Amino acid sequence: MCAPRIVQVAHEAADRRFSRRAWFGAAGLGAVAAVSGAGVARGGPGGFGSVVDLTHVLTPELPVWPGNPPFVRTPVAWHENGGFGQNALVLWEHTGTHVDAPLHRVRGAASVDLISAADLVAPLVVVDISAKAAVDADAMVTVSDVERWEDEHGPIPERAFVAMHSGWEGRLAVPGAFLNLDIGGRPHAPGFAVEAAEFLVSRRGIVGAGVDTLSLDQAASREFGAHTVFLGAGRYGVEMLANLAQVPPSGATVIVGAPKHAGGTGGPCRVLALV
């Protein structure tokens, strides 16, 4: 989490010019990440047909969990003065397309820098619940959804990354629709049912789970059971994935470019699918 003083400095910096040394002396930034746009690149490496970017462009307008501050980008160096451009980035760790490390939910668990690199490259499994999410904002990935996926595509591979495709990113074009707050200010969006999380961890040995929403749990939950199951078992999560409709339900490989700052509970990441 960023201290309030860091956020204040970033906003003040837009109105005054100062050196790189002055910025880092004043701000001591720790949560910095570069996240690029989503899309498809044809002719991928290593024999893959394409590379699909599962990452949202990180902008101040991208929705964040209610109560969190938006992303801030402030120019701090200019090509006209010294030859190099540079921005200061201020954000909370769980902003944009981002990783949840076990430490995010479980005190004393692994921080983001301790996630095994081997676990960040995995077979990608996409469970599509977009049909029921279209009529039920509180829809969840259930054990039945997972079993139905296996009936069609075969057993989930060992050490896979399982992503929920709810179609929720389609709501980004309508202000307020992505957060989908009720009259009491509680968000409503799909996520994993606790039983499905337990099944995937204990019966299928997954390395991580992802969603195209802001929470591994159904957003209205206050127990955060899916978070507790996934992260409590030492798995990681990725929230706010993009472009899951552009990858097949099975057969792709995911690469999660997780940040590596000491003690981090997570952070923005670049996620790629090799199809």
Précis, in short:
With 275 residues, this protein is an alpha/beta fold.
* Sequence stretches where pLDDT stays below 50 over 5 or more residues: 1-38
Termini, distance in Å? 35 Å
> What's the shape?
globular
**What is the count of structural domains?**
2
CATH superfamily of the largest domain: Putative cyclase
Main β sheet profile: 10 strands, mixed
Q: How many extended strands?
A: 14
Radius of gyration: 19 Å
CATH architecture designation of the largest domain: 3-Layer(bba) Sandwich
Into which percentage range does the β-strand content fall? 15-25%
Based on the structure, what is the oligomeric state of the protein chains? single chain
| Nearest-integer average pLDDT | 88
Class from helix and strand fractions: alpha/beta
Largest sheet strand order: 1-2-14-12-6-8-10-11-5-13
Name of the CATH first level of the largest domain: Alpha Beta
What is the H/E order?
A: HHEEEEEEHEHEEHEHEEEE
Which bin fits the share of residues in helices?
10-25%
Total helix count? 6
CATH level 3 topology of the largest domain: Glucose Oxidase, domain 1
Verbal overview:
By secondary structure, the chain is an alpha/beta fold. The protein has 2 domains: 4-30 and 65-90, no CATH class; 98-274, 3-Layer(bba) Sandwich (Glucose Oxidase, domain 1), CATH 3.50.30. Helix content is 18%, strand content 24%. α5 (194-202) packs parallel to α6. Residues 1-38 have low confidence and may be disordered.
